[in-house]
Design goal:
The complex is a heterodimer. Chain A is of the alpha+beta class. Chain A has a single domain (4-123), classed as 2-Layer Sandwich (Beta-Lactamase), CATH 3.30.450. Helices cover 37% and strands 28% of the residues of chain A. Chain A contains 3 helices and 5 strands; from the N terminus they run H-E-E-H-E-E-E-H. Chain A has a 5-stranded antiparallel beta sheet, sandwiched between helices. In chain A, helix 1 packs antiparallel against helix 3 (109-123). The longest helix of chain A has 22 residues, at 42-63. The mean pLDDT of chain A is 88. In chain B, strand 2 and strand 3 form a beta hairpin. Chain B folds into 3 domains: 4-138, no CATH class; 148-211, no CATH class; 237-279. Chain B is globular, with a radius of gyration of 22 Å. Chain B is an alpha+beta fold. In chain B, helix 8 (188-195) crosses helix 9 (199-211) and helix 10 packs antiparallel against helix 11. Chain B has a 4-stranded antiparallel beta sheet with strand order 3-2-1-4. Chain B has helices at 4-13, 46-52, 58-67, 74-80, 86-104, 130-147, 173-181, 188-195, 199-211, 237-247, 263-279, and strands at residues 18-21, 26-31, 34-40, 113-116. Classes of the chains: A alpha+beta, B alpha+beta. Chains A and B meet through helix 1 and helix 2 of A and helix 2, helix 5, helix 6 and helix 9 of B. Chain A: This is Dynein regulation protein LC7. Chain A: It comes from Streptosporangium minutum. Chain B: Residues 219-265 are annotated as: Disordered.
Chain lengths: 126, 280
């Protein structure tokens, strides 16, 4: 069982992790920050990332046959890294989103996804 | 008069531990100068948020609350019993506190009273500094205004429109819950308590629904002037009838929000004045 800060420490322990943010999707607030994110404007990043997730959800919902959508994780690769977003359903509000940016050269996407999945099971049990 | 912010900042400098009560509006809990818990009359309690999802039983929460003491805090008991993971508890406290604080900073007409020593039964789970709380509240206020720049819906019953003014609608899960829960009598605050969702999240969902045209708003959109009351014959009677029209509720069942210093009220008064000037 993990606390929020421990969770972030473990996310940063994923090979190739550059920075990580825990985001409250509803309000777009940065709940906790790890790694290099401490240097950027996390408030803006968190708001932007939750907006990215929202837009993707809206877009995919209209293209999915049933019209509903549930994202397990989302990977976006840009020239400054792989960006992984994993929304976690919580009992009261949320979702809570784990965001991690991975180094293009030093990371293994499959491993990172696997680690995030295991982590989220220990952070939140649904 | 001292504002809540200044009182809190003073307590933070003194590294005070105890409760700051704002009359009926709610209470801040401080531990070593930092806010560790807050509750507001306008937001659902943490207990309500926890038990609304049915995964956590009201019994387990009550038990932890009763057996919580100095050496073993309620939060630790809940985690030890396997009711919640530490992460869930922390996130729940975080949501509940930020939700309550949003409404506490706006609360007026009370005298803050500090009682040293008092602690919340959960114990400190997350520490907030006052400037961080103020910044987050400002951010949330901007977010609400970006969704729909009028506070008039915040205290009125939520009434979904019968027919949707478009071909297709995409909703978030919370927007769905709000629409399903809306019975044309419940205000956003009532819905938050009923759904067990933070009041701010519900407020945001309501404003987003208003922007999408899915719930009923007053005849005109924000910023657009509403139709003025029709001019009637007769001299001085006009003033009285205009005033009467202005205080009448917008719909047959919708009660007016309580009187505030709210800009929408001010706008109404300005329009009234203009109407009266046009009459003379």
């Amino acid at each position: 069982m993990l606390g929020i800060e421990d969770c972030l420490t473990e996310v940063m322990a994923i090979p190739g992790a550059l920075d990580a943010i825990l985001i409250d999707q509803t309000s777009g607030m940065a709940v906790a920050v790890g790694g290099g994110s401490r240097h950027v404007d996390t408030e803006k990043s968190a708001a932007g990332l939750s907006e990215t997730l929202r837009a993707t959800l809206d877009g995919l919902a209209t293209t999915s046959p049933g019209g509903t959508i549930r994202i397990s994780d989302m990977i976006i690769t840009t020239d400054n890294g792989h960006h992984l977003l994993r929304p976690l359903e919580t009992v009261f509000d949320g979702p809570l989103v784990i965001y991690v940016r991975l180094d293009l050269e030093r990371s293994n996407l499959a491993l990172a996804r696997h680690r995030l999945q295991a982590l989220s099971g220990r952070l939140i049990t649904t | 008069m001292a504002t809540v912010e200044s009182v809190l900042s003073g307590l933070a400098d003194d590294r005070a531990t105890g409760t700051l009560r704002l009359g009926k509006a709610g209470t801040f809990y401080l531990t070593g100068g930092r806010v560790t818990y807050a509750e507001s009359a306008a937001a659902p309690r943490l207990e309500d948020l926890l038990t609304a999802g049915r995964r956590v039983s009201a019994h387990a929460v009550r038990q932890a609350r009763q057996s919580a003491g100095e050496e073993r805090r309620g939060g630790e008991l809940l985690v030890a019993q396997g009711v919640l993971t530490r992460g869930e508890l922390e996130f729940c406290v975080l949501s509940a506190v930020l939700d309550a604080v949003y409404f506490l900073f706006d609360a007026t007409g009370h005298r803050p009273r500090f009682r040293p020593g008092d602690q919340h039964w959960l114990g400190p789970q997350w520490y907030f500094d006052v400037t961080g709380l103020l910044r987050e509240c400002r951010r949330r206020r901007t977010q609400l205004d970006q969704a729909w720049p009028s506070a008039e819906l915040d205290t009125l019953p939520v009434v979904p429109v019968g027919r949707v003014p478009c071909q297709r609608v995409v909703l978030t899960s919370l927007q769905w819950e709000v629409l399903v829960g809306a019975d044309s009598a419940a205000t956003p605050g009532d819905l938050a308590r009923k759904l067990g969702r933070p009041a701010y999240s519900v407020l945001l969902a309501v404003r987003q629904l208003a922007a999408a045209g899915l719930i009923r708003t007053s005849a005109a959109g924000p910023g657009e002037p509403e139709a003025l009351p029709r001019r009637t014959k007769g001299g001085t009677d006009d003033v009285r009838s205009l005033a009467a029209v202005a205080t009448e509720p917008p719909g047959p069942s919708a009660p007016l929000p309580p009187t505030t210093g709210d800009p929408t009220d001010v706008n109404l008064l300005i329009r009234l004045r203009n109407a009266l000037e046009a009459l003379s």
